[in-house]
Write a structure and sequence with these properties.
Strand content: 15-25%
Radius of gyration: 13 Å
Number of helices: 4
GO biological process, one term: phosphorelay signal transduction system
Strand order of the largest sheet: 2-1-3-4-5
Distance between the termini: 15 Å
InterPro entries: Bact_response_regulator, CheY-like_superfamily, Sig_transdc_resp-reg_receiver
Keywords: Phosphoprotein
Largest sheet: 5 strands, parallel
Structural class: alpha/beta
CATH architecture: 3-Layer(aba) Sandwich
Organism: Sphingomonas liriopis
Number of domains: 1
Order of helices and strands: EHEHEHEEH
Protein name: Response regulator
CATH superfamily: Response regulator
Length: about 120
């Protein structure tokens, strides 16, 4: 069952994303607020999907994702950010960029697509 790691430094938005991920089919979620916490969380439990903000108060969501992807097989990354241009050239297979603000329905639908894609890849 898919575990989703959420890297988001706004507590309320992190909960918003967590709720959307559960409704989209995530079995478990973990929300972290810093680059260091994200890297530690991914070492502790390998995520099936990472949802990351780009700019964090402590560290960088982009750098956290680079390190997480380097340590694991291809993990779909969903950037949810107010700075979508920062993601240019940084997407890995199966990833996407969602610009903030975003509706709950749009986020849930997008995460459903990514989780479904992950499930298909695990079936092969």
């Amino acid at each position: 069952m898919p575990h989703v790691l959420i890297i988001e430094d706004s507590y309320l938005f992190g909960q918003f994303v967590s709720d959307a991920a559960i409704l989209a089919g995530a079995r478990t979620v973990e929300v972290v607020e810093t680059q260091a916490a994200a890297e530690t969380a991914a070492r502790r439990k390998a995520p099936a999907v990472v949802v990351a903000d780009v700019r964090l108060r402590s560290g960088s969501g982009l750098r956290a994702v680079e390190r997480i992807v380097a340590d694991h097989d291809a993990i779909p990354i969903v950037y949810v950010t107010g700075y979508p241009a920062d993601c240019d050239g940084r997407l890995v297979a199966g990833g996407m960029v969602i610009a903030k603000p975003v509706s709950h329905d749009t986020l849930r639908t997008s995460l459903s697509q990514v989780i479904a894609q992950w499930r298909r890849s695990m079936a092969h």
